[in-house]
Structure formats: C-alpha cells, structure tokens
Design a protein that fits this description.
Elements (H helix, E strand, L loop, with lengths): L15 H21 L9 H8 L3 H7 L3 H27 L4 H18 L1 H8 L5 H16 L6 H20 L7 H18 L1
C-alpha cells in the first residue's frame, strides 16, 4: 500500500510499458478495422477482435469497456486521420479567406472519402458510430472558418449538413460539388450573426 492519504494508487505504466500498452491498443483497433472490411460492426464479437489481434480476451477490457467504445475508437482513428491530412493540406495552401478554406477543406475531405475505398466504406458503411464522423467534420469546419465565430449550435448545424453532403457524394446521390451549398449556409449564418450584433 502506498501512503497517499490512505488511498491505494496503482503504479502508472512508464517507458517501455507505456509503449507496449499503446502497441496493444493499436493492435486491437487494427484488428477491428480488418474485421470491419469483412462484416458489419454489429456482427463482430470481442472474441473475434482479440483472436485477430492475437491477444487474450481479457486484455480487451484493459483498453475498452465495451465493443461500442472500441468501435468509437476505430471511428475516431479513421476520421481524425482523414481530417488531419486535410488540415495539413489546407495549411500548406496558405489561403486566408474562410470561404475558400472551407471549399478546399470540404473538397479534400470529400475526395479522401470517395477515392479511398476502405476509408469511405469503414466510416460510412461498416456500422461505426456516425457521431464520430460529424465530430471530426466539426473540427475541420472550426479550423477552416474559425474567423467567422459561429456559435456551437451553428457549428453543429454546418457540420451535420457537411456530413450529409459527404454521405450523398459517397453514395453517388450527389455528383456536383456541394461546397457552394455549404458556403452559402455559412455565409447566411455569419451574416445573421453580424446583423444581430
């Protein structure tokens, strides 16, 4: 027992143990990704994930409290990776106009999702939680048009609309660029805010 005001505290993993924990967590996430390419999330069992990752069944619960939390981590990894790549590309272009940044960001994300067969499938068809997808888009929206100072509700509205448009592009129900629709929405919201101020 450690003397921390009478409370038992476990040792924190440091150094190699921390790296090993990260590797094991990543193995579990990658195993789930591989399985998601073959069947929907609701048909995948925790046992299948651990067998694919080559770890003991109990190890799963050291990293995730449920299959739902695991699938959320998979979705976060996928969308965070896609959004991070888009943000890097936007920053390299060095465009300062918010509408132009939004157009570039939206088009790049759309291209990433529609051109990478696994990414689009995993994010939109494999049964992963869509709220992670929308949250990732919200990060992108905030990063591209942060100067317009949309409130939380407006940012969520734009992110939801962007997610809807991206899904329509991915499924082939929308062929033309929909960035103009998104920019019109943002302009209308920011003009409304300016008029109210």
């Amino acid at each position: 027992m450690t003397d921390n005001q009478g409370i038992d505290t476990p040792k924190r993993p440091r150094g190699p143990n921390l790296r090993k924990r990260e590797r094991t967590r990543n193995k579990l996430i990658e195993a789930a990704e591989m399985l998601l390419l073959t069947k929907p999330a609701d048909e995948i069992t925790i046992q299948e994930i651990t067998v694919t990752a080559e770890v003991a069944l109990g190890t799963f619960y050291n990293y995730f409290i449920s299959k739902t939390s695991m699938m959320s981590a998979v979705a976060d990894k996928l969308i965070d990776g896609a959004v991070s790549r888009v943000i890097v590309d936007i920053d390299e272009v060095k465009v300062s106009d918010a509408s132009a940044r939004l157009r570039i960001g939206f088009d790049l994300l759309r291209d990433n999702i529609t051109n990478d067969p696994n990414l689009g499938f995993l994010i939109l068809e494999a049964g992963l939680p869509l709220h992670n997808f929308i949250a990732g888009i919200e990060v992108l929206i905030d990063r591209t048009i942060g100067d317009l100072h949309l409130d939380t509700a407006q940012s969520s509205l734009v992110s939801g609309a962007a997610a809807n448009l991206l899904i329509k592009h991915y499924t082939g129900h929308l062929k033309a660029s929909s960035a103009d629709m998104l920019i019109s929405m943002v302009d209308a919201l920011s003009n409304r805010e300016a008029a109210l101020a």
